[in-house]
Amino acid sequence: MTTLVIGAGLVGSQVARILVEEGKKPVLMDSAAQTKSIGEIVSLDKVTMISGDILRPLSVVKAIRDHGITGIVHTAANPMLTLGAQTDPYSAINLNIMGTVNVLEAARVCGVPRVVVSSSNVLNHYLAGGGGQTEPMNEEAYPRPTTFYSATKQAIESLGLNYSKWCNVQFAGMRYGAVFGPWSGAGGGGPSNVVRDALRKVMAGEEAIVPAGTMEWVYSKDAGRGTVLALRAKDLGTAVFNVTMKQPTSPDEFVQALREIVPGAKVRIETPKASAVSLPNMRRSSDPTISRQTLGYEPQFDILGALKDMHAWMKANG
Ligand SMILES: NC(=O)c1ccc[n+]([C@@H]2O[C@H](COP(=O)([O-])OP(=O)(O)OC[C@H]3O[C@@H](n4cnc5c(N)ncnc54)[C@H](O)[C@@H]3O)[C@@H](O)[C@H]2O)c1
Predict the structure, then answer these.
(1) Phi and psi for 264 in degrees, rounded to 5?
(2) 144-193 per-position pLDDT tens digit
(3) Which atom of ligand 1 lies closest to the CA of 11?
(4) Neighbour count for residue 309 (Cβ, 10 Å)
(5) Residue 107 lies inside a defined structural domain of this protein
(6) What one-character DSSP code corresponds to residue 125?
(7) Considering the entire predicted model, what is its pTM?
(8) Band of residue 282 on the pLDDT scale cut at 50, 70, 90
(9) Residue 52 has pLDDT above 80, yes or no
(10) Cβ(297)–Cβ(225) under 8 Å?
(11) How many domains does the chain have?
(12) CATH number of 62's domain
């Protein structure tokens, strides 16, 4: 069993680390691998690093054939996620939708039985409308994504589920909360970087700014674990899984956790203007029932545990 992990960033590096801890040697494929940062998460001699671009479908086919791939985790995404897609929608649509179709097609023609794909809990938050499921059916029956990024994630889930239904490729879509965690390179989305900057600042004795909105977070180690559980699950059931901390975190709870880790930390709650679209007020929480029942997923990190772990990692890694 060899897993191809596509996208070796904040989440992909954690997936690789977990597979290595299970005694496997995953293949990590990235079009612009940040080798130093990856090496801080997972020992580079325990993985096979290859260069490949999901927008070039034959590079995925070649990776599958060269390395005898039996399962795929696809975490590649457009730079800066929601924010990036708002400024460059065409590239994000092309990469997220056609890139994912290329991965699913490669799995189909090469006979790889399962593809686990990173979706996002933006599909539980960046939505408008819906509720028109009347008889006769109303045009507005289903809620619609309100950002380019969430629209791509909705398309990915729908296409993946159809590959499962019609093409003999089992698909799992992982709806992570906003992810933060150990990672020194570029990557993640607006919220991932807000947390990293806040910790960096309080550790340096500077004032940190934290998001004004309530957020549904997930620690990258839990996102990776949920993903590996989907890779292993016997039966994927309905195949789309919420992977979060289970509890939304209010700005005050976030500040309290930061101050518990760095006593006396100077923190200001504010919504930075440029990040407004990526820091919504996620008041509702994503239902954890299906991921618990089907995958056995329970988060191991709450906000305090996650910030403590990340603080220790940042101290150890300079
Ligand atoms: N970070 C978050 O807050 C968050 C939240 C919910 C969902 N997600 C989803 O989780 C997944 C992983 O996110 P992340 O934070 O680890 O992202 P990241 O930016 O840290 O990593 C993505 C990796 O994909 C690589 N990549 C980009 N284009 C590629 C291509 N054409 N071919 C091959 N590799 C390519 C990048 O070089 C990068 O290393 C994404 O699908 C993202 O949409 C992330």
Answers:
(1) 80, 10
(2) 999 999 999 999 999 999 999 999 999 999 999 999 999 999 999 988 99
(3) 16
(4) 17
(5) yes
(6) T
(7) 0.97
(8) confident
(9) yes
(10) yes
(11) 1
(12) 3.40.50.720
